[in-house]
Amino acid sequence: MDALRRYLPATLIGLGVLVAWEVLVRVSGVQGFVLPAPSAIWAALVENWTDGYAIFPAARVTLYESMGGLAIGTVLGVSTAFIVSRFPASRDTVLPLAIAINAIPIIAFAPLANNWFGILSPISKMAIAATLVYFPVMINTLRGLTQIEPAAHELMRSYAAGASAITRQLEIPNALPYFLTGLKVATTLSLIGAVVGEYFGGLSATLGRVVVSAASALRFDVTWAAILMVSVTGIVLYLMVVGLERLLIPWHPSVRGETPA
Amino acid sequence: MTDSAGTEPVVQLAGISKEFAATGSSKAKPTLALSDITLDIRSGEFVSLIGPSGCGKSTLLRLIGDLTHPTSGSVQINGKPAGQGRLDRDYGMVFQSPALFDWRKVEENVRLPLEVFGFDRASQAKRSGEMLDLVGLTDFAGHYPYQLSGGMQQRVAIARALAFSPSLLLMDEPFGALDEMTRERMNSELLSIWARTGITVVFVTHSIPEAVFLSTRVAIMSARPGRITRVVDVNLPQPRGLTTRESSGYFSLITEVREALRAGEGDEAQIASAERTAAEGTVG
Question: The CATH number of B1-21+28-90+219-276 is which of 1.20.1640, 2.60.40, 3.30.450, 3.40.50?
Fold first, then answer.
């Protein structure tokens, strides 16, 4: 009931936009290849779900690539964060390099990654996704590992706690909310990375390839349907992280859904 | 815990000085935060350190806990150097902020030191249960810290500090952030815990009534440099309660402590005025 009331405005506005869009297209007589009506996009999606452009199998491959990239980028980002937090002297070496990686224009890097890791291999798309995922995960996790109440550190010192106890009992739990925030940003980025990689070539049964081939065949209704599918996949990934948050940090203000006292 | 009454003091401070290195300009002289502090605290005592902000009372407490080190002088805990005292887990510490771990439920917070020290699961549960009972929070064992009031959070911090039966409890303005009513209630609860456990307490505060109500002795400090100017014995009868707060002995001790604090301040005002005169002299 509460959830219904909470998301009612967003639902109404979303539906309103769809209705307005549909009406506008029908009344104004805009050509389908310029802007297809929502009903036409839906029809294209249903028609090409498994047949024709086979959007559903394509979405599965794209999801696989982006989750692979998410995993690789997350492991690398979290590892870097741990190294920098454990050895603060490494900060001035590692952070500029990480910032440089983050500054790589992904669209320029994608053809290179396709070349290095094999244009038909999902690994090349994962590499592109991982490059995008790395930075937000790393920088958020690092903040979580280092931004700790001084009294909490003194408490652990008063227990004569060793480095591993401090990491286990204090730093990791403290970093979890920050890490999950980074991961939320990273989910959509991983999908963008995978799709950009697909744009520059690869297996035809991927969402990025469906967008490219449908557009070149002037099937813009299918293009829209594929874009819709990318969004839905992104939302699914995002909701998975939200579920993870509920599981791992039920005590956190962002999860318990109240303003902190 | 061994009964060390009448033998060596629990805390022995001898000729402690503490300088903080100057920040910024290299010409600046280091700040003398504590100067020649000597104080013995015997087993079962409740000693308050009271003084104006910046008199180094918190620094002194952290020195006892080996969380910082003196520039000169020695700190002994149960006859050992403070560093060994910390390694032996001789003391529990309560800070001004409860410093509870948000991700741990109340009971899990209380068992934190026991986990760090490697107690087995069964004794962890037993000890944390006893401690929650001691501070009257048994019903809140499964709550998260954010679900508790400030006073309750500080009670959890006290339970956590006592969980491993240290011989010494160090408290750094633990009730400073609480309202007056809650603070008075917490004072009474702390005294009853002190009476039941027989633990030695060193308590930092800037509230005169709090220091007098709680302590067996009040050490009065002055600022710049931090020194102990007087130690006032508080011979109010135990157990203390509402009648203590309304007794004439209580009020006269409050006056005594206040005057001792003001006398310390007087020194400082004289020094400041002397410095000002000197400075004017050089300009003129």
Answer: 3.40.50
